[in-house]
Amino acid sequence: MADPSTVSVVIPALDEADTIGAIVSGLRACASWHEIIVIDDGSTDGTGEAARTAGARVIRHPYNKGNGAAVKSGIRGASAPYVLILDGDGQHAPDLAVAIVERLGDYDLVIAARTPATQATRSRRAGNAVLNWLAGYITARPIPDLTSGFRAARRDCLQEFLHLLPNGFSTPTTTTLAFVRAGYNVTFHPIAAGRRAGHSKIHFARDGARFFVILLKLATLFSPLRVFGPLSVVPLLAGTGYGVWNVAFNGRIPNGAVILILFAALVFLVGLVSEQIAALRYSRHSTEA
């Protein structure tokens, strides 16, 4: 179990002046953290000043770089063995942070999994359910909340994957898949999320397709055979069925059937080689550690 004094709290914030002060004050009231770092990602409403007044250390970006870039700045600036990350929109009660970090030590990554009923709109809940299912397929384990930005982890593990984290909004997705694929201990702590203040920076209609593409990219990066394997089965079955049908009725194997079977073999071999390359990446990190 990690003590709050060994935890650096990282809060990425963009134009959250109305909530950031209360969040920092609430965190300071519920535990003695090693430090609270607010990354002011180019805000124009005084977010940095409000956070500093409340007692946080502020790292300011001169312009908006994205949520992922803010999180990376916070991880680089943290000095404690563990890092707690939460959003600055007031969606999560500060006192929940203690329950999250208490599970560190036994686990390398603890994710606050929001109950479906508290996850914003119905369309977003449906979109998150699809993403969770795809992530579960990629990792071969249940993923109840892939996109939760409220999480705690060992700082050295986060630094291991820092180069993989995007500057945009898919940092939670990337860290979840990276930790699971690397074999670290990952758990999900159920919570009830509150309503955020203001408007979300992420819109399902606009960003849903981007999330799906990002998830496919991560799938080919972390578990490529889980993608290429099923893709090779379709042309294999089609080619085999087409060939058997032609042999039965025409007494010959058509060129189309041969091409489909060869294509299936090629796709599978590409996935197999990609899987070996992905495995070598983690073997290198294990050797360096």
Describe the structure.
The chain is of the alpha/beta class. It has 2 domains: 219 residues, Spore Coat Polysaccharide Biosynthesis Protein SpsA, Chain A (Alpha-Beta Complex); 64 residues. It is 53% helix and 13% strand. It has 10 helices and 7 strands. It has a 7-stranded mixed β-sheet, sandwiched between helices. The longest helix is centred in the last third of the chain and has 34 residues. The chain is elongated. The relative contact order is 0.12. The mean pLDDT is 87.
Produce a short descriptive summary.
It is built from ten helices and seven strands.
Main attributes of the structure:
7-stranded mixed β-sheet, 289 residues, alpha/beta, Spore Coat Polysaccharide Biosynthesis Protein SpsA, Chain A, 2 domains, 10 helices
Helix and strand topology:
Blueprint: E1 7-13, H1 17-30, E2 35-41, H2 47-54, E3 57-61, H3 67-77, E4 82-85, H4 96-101, E5 109-114, H5 122-139, E6 151-154, H6 155-160, H7 171-181, E7 186-191, H8 204-222, H9 225-250, H10 255-288
Parallel strand pairs: 1-2, 1-4, 2-3, 5-7
Antiparallel strand pairs: 4-6, 5-6
CATH architecture of the largest domain: Alpha-Beta Complex
Q: What is the 3D form? A: elongated
Instruction: Give the number of helices.
Output: 10
Structural class: alpha/beta
* Secondary structure tally: strands: 7
Our count of domains comes out at: 2
Q: CATH homologous superfamily of the largest domain, by name?
A: Spore Coat Polysaccharide Biosynthesis Protein SpsA, Chain A
